[in-house]
Write a structure and sequence with these properties.
The chain is an alpha+beta fold and 331 residues long. It has twelve helices and 15 strands. The strands form two sheets. Strands 1, 2, 3, 4, 5, 6, 7 and 15 form an eight-stranded mixed beta sheet that branches. Helix 10 links the parallel strand 12 and strand 13.
Protein backbone atom coordinates (compact mmCIF):
# COMPACT_ATOMS: atom_id res chain seq x y z
CA UNK A 1 0.00 0.00 0.00
CA UNK A 2 1.11 3.53 -0.71
CA UNK A 3 -0.19 6.95 0.31
CA UNK A 4 -0.26 9.58 -2.46
CA UNK A 5 -0.17 12.91 -0.65
CA UNK A 6 0.45 15.17 -3.63
CA UNK A 7 -1.65 15.74 -6.74
CA UNK A 8 1.37 15.06 -8.95
CA UNK A 9 1.50 11.48 -7.60
CA UNK A 10 -2.07 10.60 -8.56
CA UNK A 11 -2.53 9.10 -12.00
CA UNK A 12 -5.31 11.10 -13.67
CA UNK A 13 -6.54 8.16 -15.76
CA UNK A 14 -6.81 5.96 -12.67
CA UNK A 15 -8.64 8.75 -10.82
CA UNK A 16 -11.19 9.06 -13.64
CA UNK A 17 -11.59 5.28 -13.81
CA UNK A 18 -12.21 5.15 -10.06
CA UNK A 19 -14.95 7.79 -10.40
CA UNK A 20 -16.56 5.64 -13.11
CA UNK A 21 -16.62 2.41 -11.09
CA UNK A 22 -16.93 3.50 -7.45
CA UNK A 23 -20.30 2.88 -5.74
CA UNK A 24 -19.89 6.17 -3.84
CA UNK A 25 -18.85 8.54 -6.65
CA UNK A 26 -20.03 12.15 -6.78
CA UNK A 27 -19.11 15.08 -8.99
CA UNK A 28 -17.43 16.67 -5.95
CA UNK A 29 -14.73 13.98 -6.03
CA UNK A 30 -14.16 14.17 -9.79
CA UNK A 31 -10.92 15.61 -11.21
CA UNK A 32 -12.74 18.08 -13.47
CA UNK A 33 -14.38 19.90 -10.53
CA UNK A 34 -11.12 19.76 -8.56
CA UNK A 35 -9.35 21.40 -11.50
CA UNK A 36 -11.98 24.15 -11.71
CA UNK A 37 -11.87 24.94 -7.99
CA UNK A 38 -8.06 24.84 -7.80
CA UNK A 39 -7.16 26.66 -11.00
CA UNK A 40 -9.49 29.56 -10.20
CA UNK A 41 -8.37 29.76 -6.57
CA UNK A 42 -11.86 29.58 -5.10
CA UNK A 43 -10.72 27.44 -2.18
CA UNK A 44 -7.52 25.98 -0.86
CA UNK A 45 -7.62 22.33 -1.88
CA UNK A 46 -5.85 19.14 -0.91
CA UNK A 47 -6.00 15.72 -2.56
CA UNK A 48 -4.81 12.51 -0.91
CA UNK A 49 -4.95 9.06 -2.49
CA UNK A 50 -4.09 5.48 -1.58
CA UNK A 51 -2.88 2.64 -3.80
CA UNK A 52 -3.03 -1.11 -3.35
CA UNK A 53 -0.70 -3.09 -5.62
CA UNK A 54 -0.33 -0.11 -7.90
CA UNK A 55 -4.10 0.42 -8.30
CA UNK A 56 -5.74 3.60 -7.03
CA UNK A 57 -8.30 2.54 -4.42
CA UNK A 58 -9.27 5.77 -2.69
CA UNK A 59 -9.15 9.54 -3.15
CA UNK A 60 -10.12 12.32 -0.78
CA UNK A 61 -10.67 15.86 -2.08
CA UNK A 62 -10.71 18.45 0.69
CA UNK A 63 -11.74 22.09 0.37
CA UNK A 64 -10.32 24.46 2.98
CA UNK A 65 -12.78 27.23 3.84
CA UNK A 66 -12.37 30.33 6.00
CA UNK A 67 -14.08 33.69 6.39
CA UNK A 68 -12.60 37.12 6.85
CA UNK A 69 -9.06 37.87 7.94
CA UNK A 70 -6.95 37.60 11.07
CA UNK A 71 -8.64 36.04 14.09
CA UNK A 72 -11.92 35.40 12.30
CA UNK A 73 -10.08 33.53 9.55
CA UNK A 74 -8.20 31.36 12.05
CA UNK A 75 -11.36 30.55 14.01
CA UNK A 76 -13.44 29.71 10.92
CA UNK A 77 -10.88 27.64 8.99
CA UNK A 78 -12.23 24.14 8.30
CA UNK A 79 -11.84 21.40 5.72
CA UNK A 80 -14.96 20.14 3.95
CA UNK A 81 -14.98 16.84 2.07
CA UNK A 82 -18.12 17.18 -0.03
CA UNK A 83 -19.68 13.89 -1.06
CA UNK A 84 -17.38 11.78 1.09
CA UNK A 85 -14.19 9.90 0.11
CA UNK A 86 -14.05 8.32 -3.33
CA UNK A 87 -13.58 4.62 -2.57
CA UNK A 88 -13.29 1.46 -4.62
CA UNK A 89 -15.83 -1.26 -3.91
CA UNK A 90 -13.16 -3.62 -2.59
CA UNK A 91 -10.87 -1.19 -0.78
CA UNK A 92 -9.34 -2.91 2.24
CA UNK A 93 -9.88 -1.62 5.76
CA UNK A 94 -6.15 -1.14 6.22
CA UNK A 95 -5.91 0.95 3.05
CA UNK A 96 -8.92 3.06 4.06
CA UNK A 97 -7.44 3.66 7.52
CA UNK A 98 -4.14 4.66 5.93
CA UNK A 99 -6.00 7.11 3.65
CA UNK A 100 -7.98 8.70 6.50
CA UNK A 101 -4.93 9.08 8.72
CA UNK A 102 -3.05 10.70 5.85
CA UNK A 103 -5.95 13.14 5.34
CA UNK A 104 -5.80 14.13 9.00
CA UNK A 105 -2.04 14.53 8.78
CA UNK A 106 -2.36 16.81 5.74
CA UNK A 107 -5.14 19.00 7.13
CA UNK A 108 -4.77 19.15 10.92
CA UNK A 109 -2.45 22.17 10.87
CA UNK A 110 -4.61 24.05 8.36
CA UNK A 111 -8.00 23.96 10.05
CA UNK A 112 -9.93 23.49 13.29
CA UNK A 113 -11.90 20.51 12.03
CA UNK A 114 -12.52 18.20 9.09
CA UNK A 115 -16.11 17.46 8.07
CA UNK A 116 -17.03 14.67 5.64
CA UNK A 117 -20.46 15.21 4.10
CA UNK A 118 -21.68 11.87 2.77
CA UNK A 119 -23.93 11.80 -0.28
CA UNK A 120 -23.91 7.99 -0.38
CA UNK A 121 -24.08 5.10 2.09
CA UNK A 122 -20.76 4.65 3.93
CA UNK A 123 -22.17 2.49 6.74
CA UNK A 124 -20.03 -0.53 5.78
CA UNK A 125 -16.91 1.51 6.60
CA UNK A 126 -18.19 3.28 9.73
CA UNK A 127 -15.98 1.30 12.14
CA UNK A 128 -12.87 2.35 10.19
CA UNK A 129 -13.87 6.02 10.20
CA UNK A 130 -14.49 5.97 13.93
CA UNK A 131 -11.23 4.14 14.65
CA UNK A 132 -9.44 6.96 12.82
CA UNK A 133 -11.04 9.63 14.99
CA UNK A 134 -14.05 10.59 12.86
CA UNK A 135 -17.28 10.91 14.87
CA UNK A 136 -20.52 10.08 13.09
CA UNK A 137 -23.26 12.72 13.10
CA UNK A 138 -26.75 11.99 11.69
CA UNK A 139 -27.76 14.11 8.70
CA UNK A 140 -30.58 13.65 6.19
CA UNK A 141 -30.92 14.03 2.44
CA UNK A 142 -33.43 13.34 -0.31
CA UNK A 143 -32.68 11.20 -3.37
CA UNK A 144 -35.15 11.33 -6.26
CA UNK A 145 -35.39 8.47 -8.74
CA UNK A 146 -34.96 10.04 -12.20
CA UNK A 147 -34.93 6.92 -14.33
CA UNK A 148 -38.08 8.17 -16.09
CA UNK A 149 -40.43 11.17 -16.17
CA UNK A 150 -43.30 8.87 -15.27
CA UNK A 151 -41.56 7.83 -12.06
CA UNK A 152 -40.86 11.46 -11.16
CA UNK A 153 -44.47 12.54 -11.70
CA UNK A 154 -45.98 9.53 -9.94
CA UNK A 155 -43.99 10.14 -6.75
CA UNK A 156 -44.31 13.91 -6.57
CA UNK A 157 -46.71 15.30 -3.96
CA UNK A 158 -50.10 16.56 -5.08
CA UNK A 159 -49.55 20.02 -3.59
CA UNK A 160 -46.23 20.36 -5.43
CA UNK A 161 -47.78 19.33 -8.76
CA UNK A 162 -50.58 21.84 -8.17
CA UNK A 163 -48.11 24.67 -7.46
CA UNK A 164 -46.15 23.83 -10.62
CA UNK A 165 -49.36 23.79 -12.66
CA UNK A 166 -50.43 27.19 -11.29
CA UNK A 167 -46.96 28.67 -11.89
CA UNK A 168 -46.91 27.55 -15.52
CA UNK A 169 -50.49 28.70 -16.05
CA UNK A 170 -49.53 32.20 -14.87
CA UNK A 171 -46.92 32.32 -17.64
CA UNK A 172 -43.67 31.47 -15.86
CA UNK A 173 -41.10 29.57 -17.92
CA UNK A 174 -38.03 27.48 -17.11
CA UNK A 175 -34.92 27.26 -19.28
CA UNK A 176 -31.14 26.98 -18.96
CA UNK A 177 -29.14 30.20 -18.68
CA UNK A 178 -27.37 31.39 -21.82
CA UNK A 179 -26.00 34.85 -20.93
CA UNK A 180 -23.93 36.48 -18.19
CA UNK A 181 -26.78 38.91 -17.50
CA UNK A 182 -29.04 35.96 -16.66
CA UNK A 183 -26.40 34.50 -14.34
CA UNK A 184 -26.05 37.89 -12.63
CA UNK A 185 -29.81 38.18 -12.14
CA UNK A 186 -29.91 34.71 -10.55
CA UNK A 187 -26.98 35.65 -8.33
CA UNK A 188 -28.74 38.76 -7.09
CA UNK A 189 -31.67 36.68 -5.81
CA UNK A 190 -29.36 34.06 -4.30
CA UNK A 191 -27.21 36.70 -2.61
CA UNK A 192 -30.25 38.22 -0.93
CA UNK A 193 -31.33 34.78 0.31
CA UNK A 194 -27.89 34.15 1.84
CA UNK A 195 -27.75 37.60 3.40
CA UNK A 196 -31.23 37.49 4.95
CA UNK A 197 -31.81 33.81 5.78
CA UNK A 198 -28.88 31.47 5.24
CA UNK A 199 -26.34 33.85 6.81
CA UNK A 200 -23.37 32.00 5.41
CA UNK A 201 -20.63 33.17 3.02
CA UNK A 202 -21.39 32.86 -0.69
CA UNK A 203 -19.09 32.61 -3.69
CA UNK A 204 -18.67 35.90 -5.62
CA UNK A 205 -20.67 36.37 -8.81
CA UNK A 206 -17.54 35.61 -10.89
CA UNK A 207 -17.65 32.03 -9.57
CA UNK A 208 -21.15 31.54 -10.97
CA UNK A 209 -20.27 33.17 -14.29
CA UNK A 210 -17.35 30.79 -14.71
CA UNK A 211 -18.84 27.53 -13.45
CA UNK A 212 -21.89 27.86 -15.70
CA UNK A 213 -19.51 27.63 -18.66
CA UNK A 214 -18.33 24.20 -17.52
CA UNK A 215 -19.84 21.12 -19.25
CA UNK A 216 -20.82 19.50 -15.94
CA UNK A 217 -22.80 22.55 -14.69
CA UNK A 218 -26.41 23.49 -15.46
CA UNK A 219 -28.13 26.70 -14.36
CA UNK A 220 -31.89 26.29 -14.72
CA UNK A 221 -33.65 29.67 -14.62
CA UNK A 222 -37.26 30.63 -14.06
CA UNK A 223 -38.51 33.71 -15.88
CA UNK A 224 -41.74 35.57 -15.24
CA UNK A 225 -42.85 38.82 -16.85
CA UNK A 226 -39.60 38.76 -18.84
CA UNK A 227 -37.41 38.78 -15.71
CA UNK A 228 -35.35 36.12 -13.94
CA UNK A 229 -37.22 35.31 -10.72
CA UNK A 230 -35.44 32.16 -9.57
CA UNK A 231 -33.17 29.30 -10.52
CA UNK A 232 -31.27 26.15 -9.62
CA UNK A 233 -27.55 25.56 -10.14
CA UNK A 234 -26.84 21.84 -10.54
CA UNK A 235 -23.69 19.82 -11.12
CA UNK A 236 -23.79 16.56 -13.10
CA UNK A 237 -21.90 13.33 -12.67
CA UNK A 238 -22.59 11.96 -16.13
CA UNK A 239 -24.96 9.01 -16.19
CA UNK A 240 -25.13 8.89 -12.39
CA UNK A 241 -26.61 11.91 -10.61
CA UNK A 242 -27.50 15.58 -10.81
CA UNK A 243 -26.75 17.58 -7.64
CA UNK A 244 -28.80 20.67 -6.74
CA UNK A 245 -26.13 22.89 -5.20
CA UNK A 246 -27.91 26.28 -5.07
CA UNK A 247 -31.61 27.09 -5.49
CA UNK A 248 -33.55 30.30 -4.91
CA UNK A 249 -36.59 32.24 -6.02
CA UNK A 250 -38.84 35.21 -5.36
CA UNK A 251 -41.49 32.94 -3.89
CA UNK A 252 -43.47 35.53 -1.95
CA UNK A 253 -43.90 38.08 -4.71
CA UNK A 254 -46.98 36.57 -6.34
CA UNK A 255 -49.87 34.43 -5.15
CA UNK A 256 -49.73 31.64 -7.71
CA UNK A 257 -46.13 31.85 -8.93
CA UNK A 258 -43.58 29.62 -7.19
CA UNK A 259 -40.15 30.14 -8.82
CA UNK A 260 -38.11 27.92 -6.46
CA UNK A 261 -40.49 25.02 -6.95
CA UNK A 262 -40.49 25.36 -10.74
CA UNK A 263 -36.67 25.65 -10.79
CA UNK A 264 -36.25 22.42 -8.82
CA UNK A 265 -39.01 20.67 -10.80
CA UNK A 266 -37.34 21.52 -14.10
CA UNK A 267 -33.92 20.52 -12.74
CA UNK A 268 -35.34 17.11 -11.76
CA UNK A 269 -36.65 16.59 -15.28
CA UNK A 270 -33.29 17.76 -16.65
CA UNK A 271 -31.74 14.86 -14.70
CA UNK A 272 -34.14 12.52 -16.53
CA UNK A 273 -33.20 13.96 -19.93
CA UNK A 274 -29.49 13.72 -19.13
CA UNK A 275 -29.83 10.03 -18.31
CA UNK A 276 -29.03 10.45 -14.60
CA UNK A 277 -30.23 7.77 -12.22
CA UNK A 278 -31.06 10.17 -9.43
CA UNK A 279 -31.45 13.78 -8.41
CA UNK A 280 -29.57 14.60 -5.21
CA UNK A 281 -31.02 17.44 -3.13
CA UNK A 282 -27.78 17.84 -1.13
CA UNK A 283 -29.03 17.86 2.41
CA UNK A 284 -32.16 17.98 4.53
CA UNK A 285 -30.87 18.77 8.01
CA UNK A 286 -30.55 16.77 11.19
CA UNK A 287 -33.23 14.14 11.89
CA UNK A 288 -35.68 15.04 14.63
CA UNK A 289 -35.13 18.78 14.30
CA UNK A 290 -37.58 21.12 12.59
CA UNK A 291 -36.15 22.32 9.31
CA UNK A 292 -38.12 24.30 6.74
CA UNK A 293 -35.82 23.31 3.87
CA UNK A 294 -36.58 19.63 4.55
CA UNK A 295 -40.30 20.38 4.38
CA UNK A 296 -39.82 22.14 1.04
CA UNK A 297 -37.82 19.26 -0.43
CA UNK A 298 -40.08 16.49 0.90
CA UNK A 299 -42.92 17.29 -1.51
CA UNK A 300 -40.84 16.48 -4.60
CA UNK A 301 -41.24 12.76 -3.99
CA UNK A 302 -37.72 11.75 -3.06
CA UNK A 303 -36.60 9.07 -0.64
CA UNK A 304 -35.43 10.41 2.72
CA UNK A 305 -32.00 8.93 3.48
CA UNK A 306 -29.66 9.40 6.43
CA UNK A 307 -26.08 8.93 5.28
CA UNK A 308 -24.76 11.32 7.88
CA UNK A 309 -21.53 13.20 8.28
CA UNK A 310 -18.18 12.44 9.88
CA UNK A 311 -16.42 15.02 12.04
CA UNK A 312 -12.78 15.05 13.10
CA UNK A 313 -11.84 17.90 15.44
CA UNK A 314 -8.20 18.86 14.95
CA UNK A 315 -8.02 21.71 17.46
CA UNK A 316 -10.76 21.41 20.11
CA UNK A 317 -10.40 24.87 21.66
CA UNK A 318 -10.35 26.64 18.29
CA UNK A 319 -13.27 24.49 17.14
CA UNK A 320 -15.38 25.50 20.16
CA UNK A 321 -14.51 29.17 19.76
CA UNK A 322 -15.19 29.10 16.02
CA UNK A 323 -18.51 27.32 16.54
CA UNK A 324 -19.58 30.01 19.01
CA UNK A 325 -18.60 32.85 16.67
CA UNK A 326 -20.35 31.34 13.63
CA UNK A 327 -23.55 30.67 15.59
CA UNK A 328 -23.48 34.21 16.97
CA UNK A 329 -23.08 35.71 13.49
CA UNK A 330 -25.90 33.53 12.13
CA UNK A 331 -28.29 34.71 14.84
Amino acid sequence: MKVLNDISLIDRRQWTALVDRSPVSTIFQAPELFDFITENGWYGTRVVGVEEDGVLKGVVVGWILAEGKGLKQRLSARAIINGGPLLDEDIGEEALALLLKAVVGELKHRCAYIEIRNFNDYSRWRAVFEACGFRYRPHCNFHIDTTSSETVEARMGKSRRRDIRYTLREGAQAMEATTSDEVDAFYGILQELYREKVKRPLFPVSFFRQITRMPFAHLVLVKYQEKVVGGSLCLELKGRALYEWFVCGLDNEWHNVHPSELATYEAIHLAVRQGCQRFDMMGAGEPGKAYGVRDFKAHFGGTLVEHGRYLHVCRPLVYKAGEFVINFISK
